[in-house]
Structures are given as structure tokens and as C-alpha cells.
Specification:
The protein has 274 residues and is of the alpha/beta class. Helices cover 27% and strands 11% of the residues. The radius of gyration is 18 Å and the shape is globular.
Length: 274
């Protein structure tokens, strides 16, 4: 497959790529409104809540994976079909666009993040509505080894001999100092803090592969196989998963329910507010 991150020069050289605007905001701002106010020309808007997730619940979390047939239908409607090349962006370093990229790569579709996101695009933005040309994405099951259940994530984090479980949220959320949702604060006991922001430089672009490899080696990871990543609701965790791929470490797995499921489960919660 293509690398998980490409730059704007690559995008300009591939005019047939499907460009996807995946802006989404935890604070409730509208990604659709942001798209309408200015997007990369031709970019389709992808709704994280409707296109990349099943309905939320306390039992499954805020962004459960959709059924494969529902995901394939949403992608087909957006013009993403078999054989497509997809470049996704947002305005938060790949926080939300990474979810689309990782899901598509699981389905065997060539997809990558635009390094630097919307801010890396040096051309004019468009406010013209984009009507996708329908395509057909074949329904495929989600690979079982790519997804972890709550019980698997909890047991793995508690086992010092198991591959690490990473928490991709901001360090203050991991420590239990702040929690912007209605969930209790803290983290899964035994999980390691690995904020997605640590994958980026000061300009919001991905660190070089070798630097990322050193970063993950410091967390005890030289092979992503078996490493489980979670975040608030299974969105920004995909950023760490793509960063490990960029570092040449292979594919880890996602705990989809993440904190939005775990925090209400009655399982132990760890915090370190010092």
C-alpha cells in the first residue's frame, strides 16, 4: 500500500485522488460548516459521526465501528470505491482524518493523510459545494486482529509481559487532570501515555520515520504487532497507529470503544494528577 502520510506536492501530482475533508471537533463545532467556509477544491466532506461510526451508546462508546456494509455504502456514496486513492485532511494534525485513513487501509484501499492538513495546502480554497461521483466499494469484514475489545485492552494493559497499550489522548487527560467529556477522568491501569501530538513537529507535520521509530522505541515498541491503542472514542488513536506504520513498525490494533466505553464500564480507573 501507499505510505500512510503524503505531502501536498504528492497530492498535486495525483489529480485523480479522492480528497476527503474530515474536519471534526470535540467541542461541538460543525465540521460541515468548516468545509462549507473553505475546502481544498473538489474535497468531499466526510462526517465522522455518520460516515465513520455506528450510533453512540454508553455500552459501545461514542464512535463504534460501523458494520462493514454500512461503511462500504457511505464510502461508495462519497465517491470512494475499489481502486481509489484517497488523501484525507483536517485542521488538527490528522486527529480526525486519521480515522478515515486507517479504516480504508483496513479495507485494502490506498489512503493517506495529507501531512500538515489544510494548513499545508498552498492553493486557493473553494466554497463550491462538492457533489461526489458515486463509486462502489466492495463490502469486506473488519480484520479481527486489527480491533481489540474492552476486555482484551484491559487485560493487555495489566500484563507487563504483553505488548504495550497506548493512550493517544493529551497527557493531562491520561493523568486525570482534565476530562472534556462527561466521562470520569483517568486512564486504563497499565496503559502508557502516547499523545498523538508527540508524532508531530512544531509546525503540525509528522516527524520523520526514524524519529518516530525512536519515539516508539522509548515506549518499548519496536514492532507494532499486538500493540493496542485507544483514545477518547477511537478517533485520534488512529493517529498513533498510522505514525507507527510511518515508522516502519507495522500495524497495531485499535480499541474502538476507547475511554468513552471503558470509563462507564465499572472497571478500575487509574489517575496520576501529581
Amino acid at each position: 500500500m501507499m505510505p500512510p502520510v503524503v505531502d501536498s506536492t504528492w497530492l498535486r501530482g495525483h489529480p485523480d485522488a479522492v480528497v476527503a475533508d474530515v474536519r471534526w471537533y470535540l467541542d461541538g463545532r460543525s465540521g460541515a460548516a468548516a468545509h462549507a467556509s473553505g475546502h481544498i477544491p473538489g474535497a468531499v466532506w466526510v462526517d465522522v459521526d455518520a460516515d465513520l461510526a455506528a450510533p453512540p451508546s454508553r455500552e459501545q462508546g461514542r464512535h463504534p465501528f460501523p458494520a462493514p456494509e454500512d461503511f462500504a455504502a457511505a464510502m461508495s456514496r462519497l465517491g470512494i470505491g475499489d481502486g481509489a486513492v484517497v488523501i484525507a485532511y483536517d485542521d488538527a494534525g490528522g486527529l480526525s482524518a486519521g480515522r478515515l485513513v486507517w479504516m480504508l487501509r483496513l479495507m485494502g484501499v490506498d489512503a493517506a493523510l495529507l501531512d500538515g492538513g489544510l494548513g499545508a495546502w498552498d492553493g486557493e480554497l473553494s466554497t463550491e459545494p462538492v457533489v461526489p461521483f458515486p463509486a462502489h466499494l466492495t463490502v469486506r469484514p473488519w480484520p479481527a486482529d486489527a480491533l481489540a475489545t474492552m476486555g482484551e485492552a484491559a487485560a493487555q494493559a495489566a500484563d507487563p509481559a504483553a505488548p504495550p497499550v497506548l493512550d493517544a489522548r493529551a497527557a493531562a487527560r491520561y493523568r486525570g487532570q482534565v476530562e472534556p467529556t462527561e466521562a470520569p477522568a483517568g486512564h486504563i491501569p497499565g496503559a502508557l501515555s502516547a499523545p498523538m501530538s508527540d508524532n508531530l513537529d512544531d509546525a503540525g507535520r509528522f516527524l520523520p520515520p526514524a524519529v518516530l521509530a525512536e519515539h516508539y522505541a522509548a515506549l518499548g515498541i519496536t514492532d507494532a504487532a499486538g500493540v493496542t491503542v485507544y483514545c477518547g472514542s477511537g478517533v485520534s488513536a488512529c493517529h498513533d497507529l498510522l505514525a507507527m506504520e510511518r515508522a516502519g513498525l507495522g500495524r497495531g490494533r485499535l480499541y474502538v470503544g476507547s475511554w468513552s466505553q471503558y470509563a462507564f464500564s465499572g472497571l478500575p480507573i487509574a489517575a496520576s494528577v501529581s
